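Suppose a colleague, Dr. K., hands you the sequence of a protein chain of 381 amino acids and asks what its three-dimensional shape might be. Before reaching for any lab equipment, you can write down a predicted structure in C-alpha coordinate form. Begin with the sequence itself:
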Amino acid sequence: MDRLARPPVRGRRRARPAAAALLLLLAAALTACGYGSRPGPGPAAAAAPAGAAAARLSAGSVTLGYFPNLTHATALVGVREGLIQRELGGTTLKTTTFNAGPAEIEALGAGAVDIGFIGPSPAVNGYAKSKGRSLRIISGSASGGVKLVVNPDKIKTPDDVLGKRIATPQLGNTQDVAFLDWAAGRGWKVDAASGKGDVSVVRTNNTITPDAYRSGAVDGAWVPEPTASKLVAEGATVLLDESDLWPGGKFVITNVVVSQKFLKEHPDVVEAVLRGTVRTNEWINAHRDDAKASANAALKTLTGKELEPEVIDRAWPSILVTDDPLAATLGAQAGHAVRAGLLERPDLSGIYDLGPLDKVLGSLHKPPVTPPDPGTDDQRR
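The predicted structure, expressed as C-alpha coordinates, is then:
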Protein backbone atom coordinates (compact mmCIF):
# COMPACT_ATOMS: atom_id res chain seq x y z
CA MET A 1 0.00 0.00 0.00
CA ASP A 2 1.35 3.48 -0.81
CA ARG A 3 2.41 5.43 2.25
CA LEU A 4 0.12 8.23 3.29
CA ALA A 5 0.87 11.90 3.15
CA ARG A 6 2.18 13.11 6.50
CA PRO A 7 0.50 15.89 8.43
CA PRO A 8 2.43 19.11 7.75
CA VAL A 9 5.14 20.22 10.15
CA ARG A 10 4.83 23.88 11.01
CA GLY A 11 7.67 26.10 9.94
CA ARG A 12 8.87 23.91 7.05
CA ARG A 13 7.88 23.99 3.42
CA ARG A 14 9.88 20.97 2.37
CA ALA A 15 11.47 18.18 4.37
CA ARG A 16 15.15 17.58 3.72
CA PRO A 17 15.78 14.30 1.88
CA ALA A 18 17.39 12.54 4.85
CA ALA A 19 14.64 13.58 7.23
CA ALA A 20 11.96 12.60 4.73
CA ALA A 21 13.55 9.18 4.33
CA LEU A 22 13.58 8.73 8.09
CA LEU A 23 9.90 9.62 8.30
CA LEU A 24 9.04 7.13 5.56
CA LEU A 25 11.01 4.42 7.33
CA LEU A 26 9.47 5.13 10.72
CA ALA A 27 6.43 2.88 10.32
CA ALA A 28 8.60 0.09 8.93
CA ALA A 29 10.69 0.23 12.11
CA LEU A 30 7.64 -0.78 14.15
CA THR A 31 7.55 -4.53 14.73
CA ALA A 32 4.08 -5.86 15.54
CA CYS A 33 3.27 -7.53 18.84
CA GLY A 34 1.04 -10.52 19.28
CA TYR A 35 -2.73 -10.17 19.16
CA GLY A 36 -4.25 -11.97 22.11
CA SER A 37 -5.30 -11.69 25.73
CA ARG A 38 -1.68 -11.34 26.82
CA PRO A 39 1.11 -9.01 25.66
CA GLY A 40 3.04 -10.15 22.63
CA PRO A 41 6.52 -11.66 22.90
CA GLY A 42 8.39 -8.45 22.24
CA PRO A 43 7.19 -4.82 22.23
CA ALA A 44 7.91 -2.84 19.10
CA ALA A 45 10.26 0.12 19.32
CA ALA A 46 9.87 3.07 16.94
CA ALA A 47 12.96 4.77 15.64
CA ALA A 48 13.34 8.28 16.99
CA PRO A 49 13.26 11.19 14.55
CA ALA A 50 16.49 12.79 13.38
CA GLY A 51 18.05 15.05 15.97
CA ALA A 52 15.79 13.71 18.70
CA ALA A 53 18.62 12.72 21.04
CA ALA A 54 18.84 16.33 22.21
CA ALA A 55 15.13 16.25 23.07
CA ARG A 56 15.24 13.13 25.28
CA LEU A 57 12.70 13.33 28.06
CA SER A 58 12.86 11.96 31.61
CA ALA A 59 12.34 8.34 30.48
CA GLY A 60 14.38 6.49 27.90
CA SER A 61 11.29 4.64 26.72
CA VAL A 62 7.53 4.40 27.24
CA THR A 63 5.39 1.32 26.60
CA LEU A 64 1.99 1.86 25.05
CA GLY A 65 -0.74 -0.77 25.21
CA TYR A 66 -3.74 -0.96 22.89
CA PHE A 67 -5.97 -3.35 20.91
CA PRO A 68 -5.96 -4.16 17.19
CA ASN A 69 -9.53 -2.81 17.03
CA LEU A 70 -10.79 0.17 15.06
CA THR A 71 -12.11 1.59 18.33
CA HIS A 72 -8.41 2.11 19.14
CA ALA A 73 -7.90 4.11 15.95
CA THR A 74 -5.93 6.82 17.76
CA ALA A 75 -3.28 4.30 18.71
CA LEU A 76 -3.33 2.44 15.39
CA VAL A 77 -2.83 5.62 13.37
CA GLY A 78 -0.72 7.53 15.87
CA VAL A 79 1.82 4.73 16.12
CA ARG A 80 1.89 3.86 12.42
CA GLU A 81 2.17 7.44 11.20
CA GLY A 82 4.83 8.34 13.77
CA LEU A 83 2.72 11.12 15.28
CA ILE A 84 3.21 9.93 18.86
CA GLN A 85 6.90 9.12 18.44
CA ARG A 86 7.48 12.54 16.89
CA GLU A 87 6.33 14.23 20.11
CA LEU A 88 8.47 11.91 22.24
CA GLY A 89 11.70 12.98 20.56
CA GLY A 90 14.52 10.77 21.83
CA THR A 91 12.29 8.75 24.13
CA THR A 92 11.62 5.41 22.46
CA LEU A 93 8.02 4.36 21.93
CA LYS A 94 7.38 0.66 22.57
CA THR A 95 4.04 -1.01 21.92
CA THR A 96 2.18 -4.15 22.90
CA THR A 97 -1.34 -5.27 22.05
CA PHE A 98 -4.20 -7.07 23.82
CA ASN A 99 -7.53 -8.71 23.00
CA ALA A 100 -9.50 -7.16 25.86
CA GLY A 101 -9.18 -4.72 28.74
CA PRO A 102 -8.76 -6.93 31.83
CA ALA A 103 -5.48 -8.33 30.51
CA GLU A 104 -4.20 -4.83 29.74
CA ILE A 105 -5.09 -3.66 33.26
CA GLU A 106 -3.03 -6.54 34.65
CA ALA A 107 -0.09 -5.47 32.50
CA LEU A 108 -0.47 -1.85 33.61
CA GLY A 109 -0.48 -2.92 37.25
CA ALA A 110 2.60 -5.09 36.73
CA GLY A 111 4.54 -2.26 35.08
CA ALA A 112 4.64 -3.97 31.68
CA VAL A 113 2.58 -1.11 30.21
CA ASP A 114 2.97 2.57 31.13
CA ILE A 115 0.13 4.16 29.16
CA GLY A 116 -2.79 2.32 27.65
CA PHE A 117 -5.84 2.70 25.43
CA ILE A 118 -8.68 0.86 27.12
CA GLY A 119 -12.42 0.63 27.54
CA PRO A 120 -14.27 2.19 30.47
CA SER A 121 -15.29 -0.96 32.33
CA PRO A 122 -11.77 -2.40 32.79
CA ALA A 123 -10.49 1.06 33.71
CA VAL A 124 -13.17 1.45 36.40
CA ASN A 125 -12.65 -2.10 37.64
CA GLY A 126 -8.88 -1.69 37.84
CA TYR A 127 -9.22 1.61 39.66
CA ALA A 128 -11.77 0.22 42.11
CA LYS A 129 -9.87 -2.99 42.87
CA SER A 130 -6.69 -1.03 43.61
CA LYS A 131 -8.66 1.34 45.86
CA GLY A 132 -7.76 4.23 43.60
CA ARG A 133 -4.02 3.58 43.52
CA SER A 134 -3.46 1.96 40.12
CA LEU A 135 -4.28 4.35 37.30
CA ARG A 136 -5.66 7.63 36.12
CA ILE A 137 -7.74 8.39 33.03
CA ILE A 138 -5.90 11.19 31.25
CA SER A 139 -7.82 11.56 27.98
CA GLY A 140 -10.63 10.29 25.85
CA SER A 141 -9.94 8.50 22.59
CA ALA A 142 -13.09 7.17 20.92
CA SER A 143 -16.87 6.97 21.01
CA GLY A 144 -19.10 4.42 19.28
CA GLY A 145 -18.10 1.49 17.11
CA VAL A 146 -19.97 -1.21 19.06
CA LYS A 147 -22.85 -3.29 17.71
CA LEU A 148 -25.02 -6.29 18.49
CA VAL A 149 -24.89 -8.41 15.34
CA VAL A 150 -26.96 -11.57 14.98
CA ASN A 151 -27.86 -14.50 12.78
CA PRO A 152 -30.92 -13.23 10.89
CA ASP A 153 -32.29 -16.77 10.51
CA LYS A 154 -32.52 -17.11 14.29
CA ILE A 155 -32.90 -13.54 15.55
CA LYS A 156 -35.09 -10.94 13.90
CA THR A 157 -36.11 -8.76 16.88
CA PRO A 158 -34.56 -7.97 20.26
CA ASP A 159 -37.03 -10.37 21.92
CA ASP A 160 -35.59 -13.21 19.82
CA VAL A 161 -32.24 -12.87 21.66
CA LEU A 162 -33.87 -14.68 24.60
CA GLY A 163 -32.45 -18.18 24.86
CA LYS A 164 -29.68 -17.56 22.32
CA ARG A 165 -25.89 -17.67 22.59
CA ILE A 166 -24.25 -14.25 22.32
CA ALA A 167 -20.49 -13.70 22.24
CA THR A 168 -18.66 -10.93 24.08
CA PRO A 169 -14.86 -10.44 24.09
CA GLN A 170 -14.06 -11.23 27.74
CA LEU A 171 -15.68 -11.44 31.16
CA GLY A 172 -15.91 -7.93 32.58
CA ASN A 173 -14.78 -6.12 29.46
CA THR A 174 -16.76 -3.09 28.24
CA GLN A 175 -18.90 -4.96 25.70
CA ASP A 176 -19.55 -7.79 28.15
CA VAL A 177 -20.87 -5.34 30.73
CA ALA A 178 -22.94 -3.48 28.13
CA PHE A 179 -24.62 -6.66 26.94
CA LEU A 180 -25.33 -7.91 30.47
CA ASP A 181 -26.94 -4.57 31.32
CA TRP A 182 -29.00 -4.55 28.13
CA ALA A 183 -30.24 -8.07 28.86
CA ALA A 184 -31.09 -7.11 32.45
CA GLY A 185 -33.01 -4.12 31.14
CA ARG A 186 -35.23 -6.53 29.23
CA GLY A 187 -35.95 -8.45 32.43
CA TRP A 188 -33.70 -11.41 31.64
CA LYS A 189 -31.56 -12.98 34.33
CA VAL A 190 -27.97 -14.00 33.60
CA ASP A 191 -25.30 -15.11 36.05
CA ALA A 192 -22.50 -12.70 35.20
CA ALA A 193 -19.66 -15.00 36.27
CA SER A 194 -20.74 -18.10 34.33
CA GLY A 195 -22.66 -16.35 31.55
CA LYS A 196 -25.54 -18.79 32.01
CA GLY A 197 -29.18 -17.79 32.23
CA ASP A 198 -32.01 -16.58 30.06
CA VAL A 199 -29.32 -15.71 27.52
CA SER A 200 -26.01 -17.55 27.24
CA VAL A 201 -23.05 -15.16 27.22
CA VAL A 202 -20.11 -16.83 25.48
CA ARG A 203 -16.82 -15.04 26.18
CA THR A 204 -14.84 -15.36 22.97
CA ASN A 205 -11.59 -13.80 21.76
CA ASN A 206 -12.40 -11.30 18.99
CA THR A 207 -9.99 -13.05 16.65
CA ILE A 208 -12.05 -16.25 16.65
CA THR A 209 -15.57 -14.81 17.02
CA PRO A 210 -16.16 -14.89 13.23
CA ASP A 211 -15.20 -18.59 13.21
CA ALA A 212 -17.54 -19.23 16.15
CA TYR A 213 -20.36 -17.50 14.30
CA ARG A 214 -19.64 -19.34 11.06
CA SER A 215 -19.72 -22.71 12.85
CA GLY A 216 -22.96 -21.93 14.65
CA ALA A 217 -21.33 -21.96 18.10
CA VAL A 218 -22.82 -18.51 18.74
CA ASP A 219 -25.96 -16.87 17.40
CA GLY A 220 -24.65 -13.34 17.57
CA ALA A 221 -22.17 -11.06 19.30
CA TRP A 222 -21.97 -7.71 21.12
CA VAL A 223 -18.58 -6.61 19.84
CA PRO A 224 -16.46 -3.65 18.74
CA GLU A 225 -15.36 -2.85 15.24
CA PRO A 226 -14.03 -4.37 13.08
CA THR A 227 -15.34 -7.64 14.53
CA ALA A 228 -18.95 -6.54 14.11
CA SER A 229 -18.49 -5.81 10.41
CA LYS A 230 -16.55 -9.04 9.91
CA LEU A 231 -19.63 -10.88 11.17
CA VAL A 232 -21.84 -8.88 8.81
CA ALA A 233 -19.58 -10.04 5.98
CA GLU A 234 -20.36 -13.60 7.17
CA GLY A 235 -24.08 -12.96 6.77
CA ALA A 236 -24.96 -11.49 10.16
CA THR A 237 -27.14 -8.40 10.48
CA VAL A 238 -26.88 -5.45 12.84
CA LEU A 239 -29.69 -5.73 15.37
CA LEU A 240 -28.52 -2.82 17.50
CA ASP A 241 -25.92 -0.06 17.36
CA GLU A 242 -24.99 0.78 20.95
CA SER A 243 -24.75 4.47 20.03
CA ASP A 244 -28.54 4.45 19.65
CA LEU A 245 -28.85 3.72 23.38
CA TRP A 246 -27.06 6.90 24.47
CA PRO A 247 -28.27 10.53 24.48
CA GLY A 248 -26.66 12.34 21.58
CA GLY A 249 -25.33 9.03 20.27
CA LYS A 250 -22.03 9.43 22.16
CA PHE A 251 -20.51 7.17 24.80
CA VAL A 252 -16.93 6.47 25.76
CA ILE A 253 -15.59 3.27 24.26
CA THR A 254 -11.87 4.00 24.60
CA ASN A 255 -9.95 6.15 27.08
CA VAL A 256 -6.25 6.77 27.59
CA VAL A 257 -5.01 5.65 31.02
CA VAL A 258 -1.64 5.86 32.73
CA SER A 259 -0.18 4.13 35.75
CA GLN A 260 0.01 6.56 38.64
CA LYS A 261 3.65 5.65 39.21
CA PHE A 262 4.59 6.56 35.65
CA LEU A 263 2.55 9.76 35.78
CA LYS A 264 4.31 10.86 38.96
CA GLU A 265 7.79 9.99 37.74
CA HIS A 266 7.51 11.07 34.09
CA PRO A 267 4.89 13.82 33.63
CA ASP A 268 6.81 15.22 30.66
CA VAL A 269 6.57 11.88 28.82
CA VAL A 270 2.84 11.68 29.57
CA GLU A 271 2.35 15.16 28.11
CA ALA A 272 4.36 14.22 25.03
CA VAL A 273 2.19 11.15 24.41
CA LEU A 274 -0.93 13.27 24.85
CA ARG A 275 0.37 15.82 22.34
CA GLY A 276 0.74 12.90 19.97
CA THR A 277 -2.78 11.60 20.58
CA VAL A 278 -4.34 15.06 20.23
CA ARG A 279 -2.50 15.66 16.96
CA THR A 280 -3.46 12.17 15.78
CA ASN A 281 -7.16 12.74 16.49
CA GLU A 282 -6.97 16.07 14.71
CA TRP A 283 -5.38 14.42 11.66
CA ILE A 284 -7.85 11.51 11.62
CA ASN A 285 -10.83 13.87 11.68
CA ALA A 286 -9.33 16.01 8.92
CA HIS A 287 -8.24 13.09 6.70
CA ARG A 288 -10.83 10.37 7.24
CA ASP A 289 -10.02 8.34 4.14
CA ASP A 290 -6.25 8.47 4.63
CA ALA A 291 -6.70 7.63 8.31
CA LYS A 292 -8.90 4.66 7.43
CA ALA A 293 -6.20 3.34 5.12
CA SER A 294 -3.56 3.87 7.79
CA ALA A 295 -5.62 2.06 10.43
CA ASN A 296 -6.14 -0.85 8.04
CA ALA A 297 -2.43 -1.04 7.29
CA ALA A 298 -1.74 -1.08 11.04
CA LEU A 299 -4.19 -3.95 11.49
CA LYS A 300 -2.39 -5.88 8.76
CA THR A 301 0.89 -5.42 10.60
CA LEU A 302 -0.61 -6.51 13.92
CA THR A 303 -2.83 -9.37 12.78
CA GLY A 304 -1.25 -10.46 9.50
CA LYS A 305 -4.25 -9.46 7.40
CA GLU A 306 -5.88 -6.21 6.40
CA LEU A 307 -9.64 -5.80 6.42
CA GLU A 308 -11.59 -6.30 3.22
CA PRO A 309 -12.99 -3.03 1.79
CA GLU A 310 -16.58 -3.99 2.56
CA VAL A 311 -15.64 -4.57 6.21
CA ILE A 312 -13.66 -1.42 6.92
CA ASP A 313 -15.95 0.77 4.81
CA ARG A 314 -18.88 -0.35 6.95
CA ALA A 315 -17.05 -0.12 10.27
CA TRP A 316 -15.11 3.14 9.98
CA PRO A 317 -17.99 5.66 9.86
CA SER A 318 -19.38 4.45 13.20
CA ILE A 319 -16.26 5.47 15.14
CA LEU A 320 -15.64 9.00 16.40
CA VAL A 321 -12.19 9.85 17.74
CA THR A 322 -12.24 12.47 20.47
CA ASP A 323 -10.03 13.92 23.19
CA ASP A 324 -13.06 14.29 25.48
CA PRO A 325 -13.33 11.35 27.91
CA LEU A 326 -17.14 11.72 28.02
CA ALA A 327 -16.99 11.29 31.78
CA ALA A 328 -20.72 11.15 32.46
CA THR A 329 -21.07 8.05 30.29
CA LEU A 330 -18.22 6.34 32.13
CA GLY A 331 -20.17 6.78 35.36
CA ALA A 332 -23.20 5.20 33.74
CA GLN A 333 -21.12 2.24 32.55
CA ALA A 334 -19.80 1.77 36.08
CA GLY A 335 -23.41 1.59 37.20
CA HIS A 336 -24.05 -1.15 34.65
CA ALA A 337 -21.18 -3.24 36.10
CA VAL A 338 -22.59 -2.75 39.59
CA ARG A 339 -26.05 -3.93 38.52
CA ALA A 340 -24.53 -6.93 36.75
CA GLY A 341 -22.85 -7.98 39.99
CA LEU A 342 -19.35 -7.57 38.60
CA LEU A 343 -18.41 -4.61 40.75
CA GLU A 344 -19.32 -3.04 44.07
CA ARG A 345 -20.37 0.57 43.76
CA PRO A 346 -17.07 2.41 43.26
CA ASP A 347 -15.89 5.82 44.36
CA LEU A 348 -14.69 7.37 41.09
CA SER A 349 -13.93 10.81 42.48
CA GLY A 350 -10.20 10.57 41.70
CA ILE A 351 -10.17 8.48 38.56
CA TYR A 352 -9.50 11.44 36.22
CA ASP A 353 -6.41 13.60 35.94
CA LEU A 354 -7.09 15.84 32.96
CA GLY A 355 -4.55 18.51 33.91
CA PRO A 356 -1.90 17.23 31.47
CA LEU A 357 -4.46 17.04 28.65
CA ASP A 358 -5.77 20.54 29.26
CA LYS A 359 -2.18 21.82 29.32
CA VAL A 360 -1.54 20.18 25.94
CA LEU A 361 -4.84 21.46 24.50
CA GLY A 362 -4.03 24.97 25.69
CA SER A 363 -0.60 24.87 24.05
CA LEU A 364 -2.32 23.93 20.78
CA HIS A 365 -4.92 26.71 21.17
CA LYS A 366 -7.75 24.24 21.76
CA PRO A 367 -10.43 24.54 24.46
CA PRO A 368 -10.19 22.35 27.56
CA VAL A 369 -12.28 19.19 27.75
CA THR A 370 -15.58 19.02 29.62
CA PRO A 371 -14.91 18.88 33.39
CA PRO A 372 -15.22 15.29 34.59
CA ASP A 373 -18.38 14.24 36.38
CA PRO A 374 -18.16 10.46 36.71
CA GLY A 375 -21.49 9.95 38.42
CA THR A 376 -23.25 6.62 38.30
CA ASP A 377 -26.63 7.78 37.02
CA ASP A 378 -27.65 5.81 33.97
CA GLN A 379 -27.25 7.92 30.82
CA ARG A 380 -28.65 5.35 28.42
CA ARG A 381 -32.09 5.65 26.92
